[in-house]
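Whiteboard transcription, Tuesday session. T.W. wrote the structure tokens on the left side:
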């Protein structure tokens, strides 16, 4: 959930704007095993390195 709004009425978001030089903190529930893209939506930024793959493993510890 994105913080900053009234408690209990915050939308789930997949995209969050982050101003230059600032940071954002978020909670993540990793309940869907597999490889997931974690990236900036600006192609120029992705080519400059703002793209990573987050791998979520099943609870039993087996590779996804």
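and on the right, the sequence the group agreed on:
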């Amino acid at each position: 959930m994105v913080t900053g709004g009234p408690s209990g009425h915050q939308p789930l978001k997949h995209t969050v704007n982050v101003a230059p030089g600032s940071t954002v903190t978020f909670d993540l529930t990793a309940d869907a095993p597999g490889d997931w893209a974690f990236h900036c939506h600006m192609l120029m930024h992705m080519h400059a390195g703002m793209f990573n793959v987050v791998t979520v493993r099943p609870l039993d510890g087996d590779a996804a």
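Someone added at the bottom: Residues 43 and 50 are 9 Å apart (CA to CA).
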